[in-house]
Each structure stands twice: as C-alpha cells, then as structure tokens.
Amino acid sequence: IPFLKTCSLLQRDDIEKAKLTGDWKEIYDFYSKTFDSFPEINTAFKKYTETSFNSFEDCGIDAKYVNAVYDTLPQAPQDIQKCVLKGIINGLLHEWKGPQTKDDLRAYFVLLQNPLFSNTTTYVIFAHLLRQIAALPEDDHRYLIHWLKKMSQKRIKQIIDRIIQFISLRLFPAKPEDLPPMEKCTWWIPSATKVLSLFNASNSLGNPFIPYTDFYNSTLDHIDLMEDYHNWQCYGNSHRFSFCQYPFIISIAAKKVIIQKDSEQQMINIARQSLVDKVSRRQRPDMNMLFLNVKVRRMHLVSDSLDELTRKRADLKKKLKVTFVGEAGLDMGGLTKEWFLLLIRQIFQPDYGMFTYHKDSHCHWFSSLNCDNYSEFRLVGALMGLAVYNSITLDIRFPLCCYKKLLSPPIVPCDLNTPVGIGNVTIDDLCRVMPELAHGLNELLSYEGNVEEDFYSTFQVFQEEFGVIKCYDLKPGGDKIPVTNENRKEYVQLYVDFLLNKSIYKQFAAFYYGFHSVCASYALMLLRPEEVEILVCGSPELDMHALQKHTQYDGYQKTDLTIRNFWEVVLEFPLELQKKLLHFATGSDRVPVGGMGDLSFKISKSEASTNWLPIAHTCFNQLCLPPYKTKKELKQKLTIGISNAEGFGLE
C-alpha cells in the first residue's frame, strides 16, 4: 500500500492519481483495513504501537495523520466510504460491552473525528458510537476530556458542530423518513448531549479554546423548555434526561425565557396567595395588592427605596410598579426604568462611598471600608434582582468575578452561617478590576532574583481607612512570614482572595442576599457568570441594522429624507459612536438578551429648530430628532449631542 504514515502529501497525490486513472483499489484496501476493527485503528494511527500511552497528557495518536486520512475520505468514492462505515459497525458491535484497554478508548477517540458523520445517512451509526462513548466509565471520560484538550481548535469545533447538528436534526428532521421513529431512538439525544458535555468539560480545563456560546444549540430556542425545566426540578440529575442537566447547550435567550416564565409563575403564585389571604379575612380585594408598588420622593430616592423594599420584602416577586410622590402619571414601564436609572446613578457616585470606580478597568468594585449598616448593599443586590425579574437592562459595570461570586452558591443555603459570595478567584479576576496591581503581582511571580531579599515583603497587606493605615495578616502570623521564591504563589493567591473576597465579605454578603431575595430560583443554576452579567447589563454585541429594522417612528416615515440620512450616518459610525448613540437614547450602551427588537426604540420628530441638538428620553428609549435638511448637518448635530451627554459609568 503506497500510503505512508509520515507523508500526508503523498496521500493527497494518491487520491488525485486515483481520480485520473479510476483505479481506487489500493486506497480501498487501505481504508478497508484501517477501519476494520479497533486494533487496526490503533495500528494505523498510534504513533508507536509498542508504547502504551496511558496518560492524560498524550493520547498516543498521530493527529496529523488522522487529519490527513479524514481530509481525503470525503473525496473518495461511495464504496470506499461505505466500507469505512461497515468497518466502524463491526468495531462497535465487537466493543459493545465496553473497552478493555486504552487502545480501545483511542479508537473511540479517532472514530469521533470521522467527517462522514456530518451526513444524516450515517446518523444511525453515529448514534451508536455516541451511545457507547456516553456509556464509558467515568475514568475513561476523564482521559477523553484531557485528550480533547490537545486537539486543534478547528478540528474540535467541527466535532462540536457535528454533534449539535445531530441533536437539532433529531429534534426537527428535514426528512423524517430518513431517520428511525423518535419513539425507537429516545436515547439518541441524551447520548449526544452527554458526549457534548465531555467537550464542554475539556473546554473548561484551563483557558477555554472555544467560546462558550459555540456550545449553544439555537434549535432548543424553538421548543418548550419549561416542561424540561419542571422535570429537572422534580428529578434533578437523576437517570431521567433533561436539557437542563446540561445547561451549557441552552442559549442565553432560551434561559431568559425559562427565567421569565419561572418568574411570572412565582409572581402569579404570590399574587394569588395575597388575594386568597384578603378573601379569607373578608377584606375587599384591591388590584394594587397584585403588584410591588414602590412610592418614592425624588429628593429622598435612596432612603425611600430602601424603606419601601425592606417594608415590602414579601412582595418582591410581584410585578414592579413605581410612583414618584407628588407626580401624576401611570407606570407603563417608563417610570420603572427611570427609577432604576436614577437610583443606580446615585448609589454608584464615588462620593456615596459604596463603590469605587477603577478607571483602568472601567468597572466598579465594592468599597472595603467598614460601615455600620450594610442594608444599602442589600438594596443594590435587590435592584439587580428586580431588574432581571422585570427584564430591565441596567447600566452597571461590575467585573465578571462579581457574577461568579453571585453564583457562589447559586441557591441560598438554608444554614445562615454558611459563607456566601466566596468565589474561586484568580489573578486573572483581579486583572479585570485592578490591572496595575495584578501586573505587579505577576511580575513578582515571574521575578528571577531573590524575592525575599529584593522585595522584603511579608504575608501582610496594608489598607487606608479614613486616613488611617491598617494592616491585615493574610494568614496567621503573616507579619512574621517573609515572601520567598518558594511561597510567592501562595502569597499572591491569598492577596487576591483578600482583595476580592475577605476584605469585602460583609458588603458582598448583603449584596448577595439582596439579589437572591428577588431572584431565588433553581433557574439560576442554569447560568454561567457571563450569562448573569448579560441578563443584568445586556449584551455588548451591537447590530445597528437590526435596530434600524425594529425602530418605530412618530412624526416621521422611514422613507423620509431625515430618517434615511440618520441611518446612513449611524451605519457609517465607528463602534464607539454607535455605543454612545445607544447610551444617549436608552441609558445603556448594551443590548437586551432578546436583541434590538426588545429595545422598542423610537425616533420622534422634534418641532424644535434645526439649530438644536437631538434630545432623548431614556426612560422610553426615545430619540427626538429635528428635521435636519442635510446629511452633513445631521451628522454634525448628532455627533455633538451623543458625545457630550455621557452618563453614569462612562469615562
């Protein structure tokens, strides 16, 4: 056989030669023999057949050779592809009772990469392969997880997409007659999802090589996941399959629907109970009892809000309605958004002392200064919870580790003495808050000289509190323990833990309990920290074409010259100006989870002179635009307007 394991170029030449001559016999013999059995797969692809390769670090497979063989396979005639599939069937039938050696596991690893499984005609075989891999012992799964980490991003992405497509087409087959009836293969989707979870676990080892969003299966957005969610609530991670057992596959849009419906159900249950209580006491029902009615004075916004939410703690899961005392008007959503905007802006002012704004990282962090009352931190947590609960996007800039801590744990422990909000933080988390300090600590870790003599540091840190320098030991007797080359990693980890966990524990615990007082739900267990951030703050991904498509007009038609000029200007804007426009008009430069369509963005015709700049009503996501005569004038006025109206949270 002219196929040489060391020369993939020759293999491609042989394919081209076979195409020209029509003689495929040698290539047929190669593929037929290679995939005839699991031992033959190892003979063909194992780097050294006499070596066992029983380690996480090296699967022993010649990856380049596997890629070369698989890259040429789709170009081969159908009879060669069929002989490969026949060999795989024989191998799977022989190995049905489970692999006996790591060589068998290697064969599964190689077969999983087969590109022929992209075709629905091979799905029955692919399903059995996935079933056998899913049924492997946990120890074998650990090996696969580490071996997958060694694959190239391109190859592993191809397999992930292949498995996601397999699940999608099993749910919604393009040609149902091509696949067995669903009732006869109920194990297909659970097996595929479990195998996909191995890829997700591999991706979570160290630095992710695939964005977590690449594991989303958007097909699930189109099925009713609430039944799946309720089954998961009832049965947990038992043998009964549910997609909620594998939340990495559920998109943030689908998770938002689950959270919203779960929230709505909780709202209905709370409101119904209030109604029943009223009737049982022979009191006249009042429609206001169905809502969380917050009445505040503008001049006492924080204190009134704190009093209202504390006093009405039992109503936090009801639909929110806000009234500003002394002002007429029904809350149709605008007053609620205004309340959030004003309250957040006031609380996060540096002078307020609750949060510190870090210019280098453009984010806020909790002040470590001790205070007598942490109730206002609980208020901020409750505000974030209410925003998620009521689908309001907030202009808050917390680093990712804040949301990681919010999910630590995702369900409030019954024992109030159990620590909460203690995240597994790293120096990378610190870098997102205090990049300069993180850089200094990284330099300490990489310093090649004598750390003890040159840095002269101990396991002690110093902080200024109200003009007084206070010192804290990072571990018992820390002031007497020098930082050395040997213990500097421990020092850095303890320092990071002190800054992001211990020094702000009381503040964050209050914040944590405030958030969960509103959002307590098993649905939170489905979320990644990044997804909580998106639910609270929206997505940073802007699609101005989508915004144009969903924009409503008042006084204008979309064909009017001013509107046509407006969109030409906006679509030509650089990303930073597009963000400023969005912030100017809506109070946030981020997009709700549902996309631009959920913004309800409106452009209204302003009767003001064209000498005036545009104005915005952020509470209603409304831009008031004078009828500028030219594109140049519109661009100039719009740019000035959005560039000189920077609000909270932007520098």
TrEMBL record:
Residues 312-651 form the HECT domain. Keywords: Phosphoprotein, Transferase, Ubl conjugation pathway. GO terms for biological process: protein polyubiquitination. InterPro entries: E3A/B/C-like (IPR044611), HECT_dom (IPR000569), Hect_E3_ubiquitin_ligase (IPR035983). One of its GO terms (molecular function) is ubiquitin protein ligase activity. Gene3D superfamilies: Hect, E3 ligase catalytic domain, Hect, E3 ligase catalytic domains. Coiled coil: none annotated. It holds the Pfam family HECT. Signal peptide: none annotated. It is an enzyme of class 2 (transferase). It comes from the Eukaryota. Its EC number is 2.3.2.26. Pathway: Protein modification; protein ubiquitination. The active site is at C619. E3 ubiquitin-protein ligase which accepts ubiquitin from an E2 ubiquitin-conjugating enzyme in the form of a thioester and then directly transfers the ubiquitin to targeted substrates. This is Probable E3 ubiquitin-protein ligase HECTD2. It comes from Laticauda laticaudata. The lineage of its organism: Eukaryota, Metazoa, Chordata, Craniata, Vertebrata. The gene is HECTD2.
